Amino acid sequence: MTPETQAQITSLVQDNKVMLFMKGTKLMPMCGFSNTVVQILNAAGVPFETLNVLDHPEIREGIKEFSDWQTIPQLYINGEFVGGSDIAIELYQSGELQQMLEVALAS
To answer: In the predicted model, what is the mean pLDDT of residues 82-100?
Structure first.
């Protein structure tokens, strides 16, 4: 990953309380896993930002190295990597995701 790509990813993660790297956009997800996380965040009623990795191949590859996680989507809350769709589902079902979101948005 280039230093520029790392700086861009770091900036996106730090500047947005809830950041989702996904395939497609929140209005038009382009994979089922990305759509699942978008639906979870919409159900939680929180503001969030997304980046379509299909439009940014350098970020698509760089984010995997950045998080040491090989799949997309990737969810970050308050600058911390949370996980992909399976982890988001588990955290949402247990109520932990809502707590994480509340803490992030309150800070």
So the answer is: 95
